[in-house]
Amino acid sequence: MYSLQESFSQEARTSYFHNSLGGYHGAKIRRYQDLYDSCLSRETDEFIEDAQTGGLDFDKYGVLNMLNTKYIVFGPDKNNIIDNPAANGNAWFVSQLMNVSSPTEELAKVCDINTRTAAVIDNSKFQVEKFGYDSAARIELKEMQPPYLKYESESASNGLAVFSEIYYPKGWKATIDGNEAKILRADYVLRALEVPAGKHVIEFRFEPSAYVIGDKVVLASSWLLLLVLLGSLGWSFKKS
User: Fold this and answer.
1) What is the pLDDT of residue 76?
2) How far apart are CA 36 and CA 42, in angstroms?
3) Distance from C-alpha of 167 to C-alpha of 42, rounded to nearest angstrom
4) Do 147 and 77 belong to one domain?
5) What pLDDT, on the 0 to 100 scale, is given for residue 7?
6) Are 151 and 191 in contact (CB under 8 A)?
7) Distance (Å) of CA 196 to CA 23, 83, 175
8) pTM score > 0.90 for this model?
9) How far apart are the C-alpha atoms of 104 and 186, rounded to whole Å?
10) Are residues 117 and 136 in the same domain?
11) CB 87 within 8 A of CB 69
12) Residue-range definition of the domain harbouring residue 228
């Protein structure tokens, strides 16, 4: 959901009830703020102008669509909502790859493409193997929790899947049918995966090393405390 009533820097009210583009906090990941400053703010102005003149063409709002913006709120009343039928969804396969060689080029390119059919990759950081496109391919979100996402995909050819989730390399890990897969960055801020042909289960888990180590330390400490407690009880029972 995208609220035109509130500042993008803090959509706290919207975020209390819904997933929102602006989020609940003014501080943003640098790349996400760059995307807003360079692309989304301009696209928002275009959307407002088109809505006022009755010329909405949802397919042309590539950034709104790749962020899976299903609803745009423009007023305080319950009916002040515009449905976006062209939102890309939670994940999708693209038919075209646009290679660039720098983050600056990547950001400039993503502002002007149809994100439903094309993806931009910075090939100075990520390499993508040749892939095909199956127009009947599907990829669906099946489970969603804060640290876990599960998708099911089916395609007749190897494909490049883009996910409407922010790319954040520090902790997120991906697997395809249990085998680790490299998470690519596409369209400046999103995640992408090279998915082989066939039916697959795709999972993302947030497992930052500090959290995993800390969790193991806590578990070990709990067991140690339990052993000490049991030992103390046993010693007391033996003495009595």
Assistant:
1) 86
2) 8
3) 22
4) no
5) 66
6) no
7) 33, 33, 12
8) no
9) 13
10) yes
11) yes
12) 208-240
Give the per-residue SS3 of the chain. CEECCCCCCCCHHHHHHCCCCCCCCCCCCHHHHHHHHHHHHHHHHHHHHHHHHCCCCHHHCHHHHHCCCCEEECCCCCCCEEECCCCCCCEEEECEEEEECCHHHHHHHHCCCCCCCEEEEECCCCCCCCCCCCCCCEEEEEEEECCEEEEEEEECCCEEEEEEEECCCCCEEEEECCEEECCEEECCCEEEEEECCEEEEEEEEECCHHHHHHHHHHHHHHHHHHHHHHHHHHHHHHHC
Same domain membership, residue 198 and residue 108: yes
Per-residue tokens: 174: 């991906």
Cα 50–Cα 12–Cα 141 angle in degrees, nearest 5: 75
Is 176 within 8 Å of 201 (Cβ atoms)?
yes
Q: What residues are paired with 198 via a beta bridge?
A: 155
| 145-164 as b/e: b if 16+ CB within 10 A | eeeebebebebeebbbbbbb
Same domain for 196 and 227, yes or no, is no
Low-confidence ranges of the chain (pLDDT < 70): 7-18, 24-27, 210-226, 228, 230-240
Q: Label residues 17-30 b or e (16+ Cβ within 10 Å = b).
A: eeebbbbeeeebee
Query: 189 with 164: CB under 8 angstroms?
Result: no
pLDDT at 210: 58
Give the total number of structural domains in the chain: 3
